[in-house]
Amino acid sequence: MKWAVVVFPGSNCDEDAAQAVRETTGDTVDLVWHDATDLSQYDAIILPGGFSYGDYLRSGAIARFSPAVEAVRREVAEGKLVLGICNGFQVLTESHLLPGALLRNNHLQFRCEMVELIVDNNTSPFTRAYQLGERIQIPIAHGEGRFHADPETVADLRNEGRIAFRYAHSPNGSVADIAGILGQGGNVLGLMPHPERAIFDWMGSVDGRRLFQSMHQYVEEGLAHARANA
Amino acid sequence: MKTFDVEVRVWLKPSVFDPQGHAVEQALHTLGFDGAQNVRIGKYMHLTVTGDTEEEARKSVEQMCERVLSNPVMETYAYELKETVV
Amino acid sequence: MREPTPEQIRDERVYRSLGLTDAEYDLVVEKLGRLPNYVEAGIFGVLWSEHCSYKSSKVHLRRFPTSGSQVLQGPGENAGVVDIGDGMAVAFKMESHNHPSAVEPYQGAATGVGGILRDIFTMGARPVAFLDSLRFGPLDDARTRYLFSEVVAGIGGYGNCVGIPTVGGEVQFSPTYRGNPLVNAMCVGILPADGIVRGTATGVGNPVFVVGARTGRDGIHGATFASAEDPEEKERSAVQVGDPFLGKLLMEACLELIASGVVVGIQDMGAAGLTSSSAEMASRAGGGLELVLDRVPVREEGMTPYEMMLSESQERMLVVLERGREQVAFDIFRRYGLEVADVGRVTDDGRLRLIWHGEVVGDMPVAALVDEAPVYERPIGTPRVPEKGDIPTTLSVREAWLAILAHPSVADKRWVYRQYDTMVRAQTVMGPGSDAALVKVPGMDKAIAMATDGNSRYVALNPRRGGQIAVAEAVRNLATTGAKPLAITNCLNFGNPEKPEVMRQLSDAIDGMADACKALDTPVVSGNVSLYNESRGLDIQPTPVVGAVGVIDGIAKRLPSAPAREVAAAGLELWLLGREDDRLDGTLYGELVCGQPVGDAPYIDLAEERRLHELLQAIAGAQVAVAAHDVTEGGIAAAAAEMMIQCDVGGELHAPVEMALLGWLFSEAQGRALVAVAQDCAAELARLADTHAVPARKLGWLGATDDVIVRQAGDTAFTISLAALRDAFERAIPMALQSGAAEASA
């Protein structure tokens, strides 16, 4: 399978995401500039962390108007996998590919540390390699990660099993301790923690590996299925 | 074509917790301004727009606010528009 | 508003407000052979300033060793470069931003980080880490808490956004820095050993470009021809504001441009902006430059040549390109949305010539501006004789142990570093909280080790030995992780050089640092001097800060500063490498008792120090130990407590019979480290210590206890719960900031 990591001006976890994909799946990854208009050749697309356009105005607010995000919108409709990490999650909420918004942390400080997450969904293409209720260690690094949505939206997310990860101890004041959510079709995941920073022992955790491997496995199964039917 | 001077204010909706506003309110109380309540911090933007009529200019500013300058999920906005006198 | 005429500059001594003394002005006239006009006088003023010319420190800096087989680029360039083997090299430098941070702490710190970042990537290196060495007054006053919080936020604000991890540094607090905080930022980058780019303007006719932000009126000094009371004027000379987003784009574009091979020379427009970048690039090439100022992109209308030349607007670079290949650069900059302007060309007449509105408005010999800048041999006072005599021991072991761990200089700095992105780039093997940071070289089983250190208490008591210790501690931090130390950078933060006693401190501290650099084979490859650090007429304690860089081949060999909890809980031996000592000279204990530094600087022997460093590398190489932590501020007591708190396991410490217990626990004698080792490896550890001629003794153990027990001559001399030590260590800084807030609201 083939992955794309979209690079916006100000992205800074693009290389990290690409490294994580290569190291955990052995797949091919392209870094794709934000002006790309066609992403149809890719099976999975990552919107990486960073400070796209300096996070000026609002995090992710300017990036959402880039041609690449329009292309992402089309691929989401096609059922392709889209993973938004940190700033990528912010871009996804700003573009309404995911509900809610990400606000300034309740303590007003940037916070970077290893946090404990609880896996709340293990049936999605992104989380199938985890156990339900499993506690995993993944680092966070954000100043604006407080997930906000109105109560009905949160209830929907909960009822539809679209809360993928919750914080064991919320580092930012997110509603319902939400760390990551799935889109309506289940093929979009946005999360504030950085799975690409938890793939080797020396990073302090390897719990991020299975996220990329889940995606790889899901896509490869689909491709195999398609080949069998061809 | 007329030119209009526009002032846009964007702030968090009342239902959304504003930690900055909260911190400032605390500080005001510390300094003895006990009457200060409901502090909300927002953004101020200044721009000029052109349009044939004021109505057209307003429509364009509203679209900017809805689509770019604010995020309706968490923010609300207001603006003032005045024709620039040359 | 009119600029003063050359005659007015002379007659009304306007040059004084531009930073030139009467004698310096006369020298300018002599070098030019005529009276300088306003822009020329301004240019001489900044280039001959202490900051740019090092005129007070230059004669002393020459005593630093700067060469070695590992050195690829020594001082004099934008940064130093050392070889780390396998075709790779590391560029690094530290720089102070003390004054701007005292005025506007967030922007002062942020622009300090941005400036040092540009110094690294101009060498052709990909920046991979930041470290910050910070000094503040005590946290008991609101201004200091504000400075501290904002400096930390500013470092994070810039560093996090540009996507380079802040992996280390230190923060110390002392009354000496009240009113004069120190903000020293270090950046480290990786490059191919044969890929060094220099800040040189060569090739007659090659075009010169300004890239990045537009030039505004920020940071212009000495704009005195308008009334200082004029609010608009104050507005104009406001502090520089950093734009990390633009900084990131500029970095990526410049690295791409350098890789394309069309760059002849490149330099950051840092302090004194266009002036220093153009003059220094021309000076290094031994040539000249002609700049057409009308072509400099400006942010405001009506800027004068003086303002354009002296502006300190951030995120700008001066680039000399190979003639005929400009399009390559234009394409790269357009892709990053960056503005680029052709502002002049390289000449061979050795002059910096400025053209504006078709006229020559400045014409100066480059040599006079840079190479022939005045050098002073300022008077040096008599050396301070270290005090002799006993240090009172009025604080009990319990009181002292808790007070030392709760002293903000020793206490847990998590409040600081969790505001920094310490892991972006996904190569951080060991981050803040370790003896040294380790950052992996991508794609190789190799990591760069880096640390900063510098204890002004020791330097104040005994500048020469304090200087030795500053280098030894920073370098020891590297060795403690198992890395091989390679070289250092430094920031020399001192008081007013016009005072002989300050010059004595500077001169002696440099001698001490040079002693240690030679003994430890860690030459100085870059650095910076910050003088006039004083407030209300009081000079700060002399504070040389050292940034050390090394390499570890094989990251599995690394020694963390504490073992993993499960490993420690199962039982480990704790060993002391180095001498036993019970003298309280120069200790934090002494300062806590007496309210100021007391006695002499602690013991150090540089030959012993070197043997210890080699032993630590051998221990790491043989993978004998599971953790190591060096003994510094707060002595064995603090070092052991830090290790135990980190692994959350208590243990025992055994004091030698002949030592005074209190002194033994809190002595800050140098050249020592604690090592945690499995029982079955202890014999091998002892053997290695023996071959390296380093004293080694089983100090005690880590294991299944919640207490820290000190024994002497077989008896339990003292017991304290690990929880109490942890509480003191972890809560000190958050509490100091919180109680401050509570105090303010009371």
What do you see in this structure?
The complex is a heterotrimer of chains A (230), B (86) and C (746). Chain A has helices at 14-25, 67-77, 87-94, 151-159, 209-229; strands at 2-7, 28-33, 44-47, 81-85, 101-103, 111-119, 135-142, 146-148, 163-167, 178-182, 188-191. By secondary structure, chain A is an alpha/beta fold. The mean pLDDT of chain A is 97. Chain B has a 3-stranded antiparallel sheet with strand order 2-1-3. Chain B is elongated, with a radius of gyration of 16 Å. The two termini of chain B are 13 Å apart. With 746 residues, chain C is an alpha+beta fold. Chain C has 26 helices and 28 strands. Chain C has a 7-stranded mixed sheet. In chain C, helix 7 runs parallel beside helix 8 (142-162), helix 7 (105-121) packs parallel to helix 10 and helix 18 (463-480) packs parallel to helix 22 (606-621). The longest helix of chain C has 24 residues, at 722-745. The model of chain C is unreliable at 222-237 (pLDDT under 50). The interface between A and C is medium-sized, with 31 and 31 residues. Chain B: It is an enzyme of class 6 (ligase). Chain B: It catalyses: N(2)-formyl-N(1)-(5-phospho-beta-D-ribosyl)glycinamide + L-glutamine + ATP + H2O = 2-formamido-N(1)-(5-O-phospho-beta-D-ribosyl)acetamidine + L-glutamate + ADP + phosphate + H(+). Chain B: It is found in: Cytoplasm.
